[in-house]
């Protein structure tokens, strides 16, 4: 890629991004009916290209039951993974210019959060979700700028379950059991014999690692692995996913009750000026937002539900107190908001995918998802000052 072409493209992106700065964008994605689900009975009446979505109350057919929403974008059920990624590419690439970006998927269990963020099980490249595509895109663009700006790209993957942070790329066997010794060997060789050490060293040399952990940019104690090729992207993502799903079978679909966060760290050195920039991208697949009836759950399920409620409502609290320019932003109230602090507020850019299950059975959950999304989409984060 020609450097001048890249600069021109950057300028264009920069102008687009000026618009984004400080705002939360909300993109709503409606998942299709799945085969074998019986006759589709949809609540989604209309999906407009201009960001309009109309849903209908299944118990009140006719005009009275219609409710209209407007978001920055609305995807119909047939939107492809590639289309979705094309729309968020400028946001993802701004990380290479030193911005902090956070992309969430919010919605009830089964609404397509993991599909959007990761893709379906065993996804081919065409079905890759945002995580694979973003990581691969950042890696490829960083390669194309080599010589002008030299980048290091590193990845961390963690899961927050019951307010505990688990490292999905850890090779600590007390925390995670690797199903295949291949994974262990891969991580082992990557971290000890090749460039993990160099990457960490580079960050140290540049004084970035200590700054990032102090500011909460890097997840403390979670291993960071370098990305040197597309196959590293695939292997790291696969290991993280495998670890997440191993936990899930053992603990009854735990993945829908935990948040998973992929963090891509980018550090670039401008070879002409010697200046260094640092950006990070948080890609978050949130726990299911459905309300659990407390009278019906006990023990572990109740504890999980309480933790999920607490962290999702803390996320809302942070967003809304940023919006109201409050002098105290309650980042400390949950592990989730603590870890994402650098990407919420200030100059950071935030995008929320609101996921909907179109089935009439999910109407009330869909309405509460949409109402949350509606509140969030009006939020401007830029002007607020963060407090510790
Ligand atoms: P969640 O992460 O919100 O619990 P999933 O991503 O697991 O939901 O989606 C539930 C099911 O719907 C999965 O089988 C998934 O493959 C399928 N699905 C979700 N979104 C889409 C889509 N846009 N196109 C095709 N299948 C989808």
From TrEMBL:
Family: Belongs to the TRAFAC class myosin-kinesin ATPase superfamily. Kinesin family. KIN-14 subfamily.
Official protein name in the record: Kinesin motor domain-containing protein
Chain ranges of the Kinesin motor domain: 23-379
Taxon lineage: Eukaryota, Viridiplantae, Streptophyta, Embryophyta, Tracheophyta
Domain of life: Eukaryota
Annotated positions binding ATP: 107-114
Residues of the whole record sequence present: 485 to 872 of 1048
């Amino acid at each position: 890629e020609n450097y001048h072409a890249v600069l021109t493209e950057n300028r264009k992106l920069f102008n687009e991004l000026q618009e984004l700065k400080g705002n939360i964008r909300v993109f709503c994605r409606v998942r299709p009916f799945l085969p074998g689900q019986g006759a589709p009975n949809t609540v989604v009446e209309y999906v407009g290209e201009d960001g309009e979505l109309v849903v209908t109350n299944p118990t009140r057919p006719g005009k009275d039951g219609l409710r209209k929403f407007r978001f920055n974008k609305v995807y119909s059920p047939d939107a492809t993974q590639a289309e979705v990624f094309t729309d968020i590419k400028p946001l993802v690439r701004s990380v290479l210019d030193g911005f902090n970006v956070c992309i969430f998927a919010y919605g009830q269990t089964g609404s397509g959060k993991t599909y959007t963020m990761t893709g379906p099980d065993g996804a081919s490249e065409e079905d890759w979700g945002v995580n694979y595509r973003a990581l691969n895109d950042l890696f490829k663009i960083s390669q194309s700028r080599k010589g002008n700006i030299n980048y290091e790209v590193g990845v961390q993957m963690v899961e927050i379950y019951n307010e505990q942070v688990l490292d999905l790329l850890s090779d600590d066997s007390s925390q995670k059991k690797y199903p295949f010794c291949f994974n262990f060997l891969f991580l082992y060789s990557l971290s000890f014999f090749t460039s993990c050490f160099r990457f960490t060293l580079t960050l140290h040399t540049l004084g970035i690692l200590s700054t990032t952990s102090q500011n909460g940019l890097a997840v403390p104690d979670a291993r960071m692995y370098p990305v040197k090729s597309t196959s590293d992207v695939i292997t790291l993502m696969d290991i993280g996913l495998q670890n997440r799903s191993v936990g899930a079978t053992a603990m009854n679909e735990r993945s829908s009750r935990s948040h998973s966060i992929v963090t891509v760290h980018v550090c670039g050195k401008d070879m002409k000026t010697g200046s260094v920039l640092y950006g990070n991208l948080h890609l978050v697949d949130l726990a299911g937002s459905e309300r659990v009836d407390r009278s019906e759950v006990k023990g572990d399920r109740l504890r999980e539900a309480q933790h999920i409620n607490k962290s999702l409502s803390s996320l809302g609290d942070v967003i809304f107190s940023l919006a109201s320019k409050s002098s105290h932003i309650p980042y400390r109230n949950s592990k989730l908001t603590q870890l994402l602090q650098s990407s919420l507020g200030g100059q950071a850019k935030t995008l929320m995918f609101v996921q909907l299950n179109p089935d009439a059975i999910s109407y009330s959950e869909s309405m509460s998802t949409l109402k949350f999304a509606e509140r969030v989409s009006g939020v401007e984060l830029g002007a607020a000052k963060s407090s510790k």
